[in-house]
Amino acid sequence: MKVVRGMLRADELTVVHHDDTVSRFTDVTYTIGREGVRVITATGDEKAFPQHDVLTTVALTRPLIPTQRGLSSASAGNSAQVPGPR
Question: Is 36 part of any domain?
Answer without folding.
Answer: yes
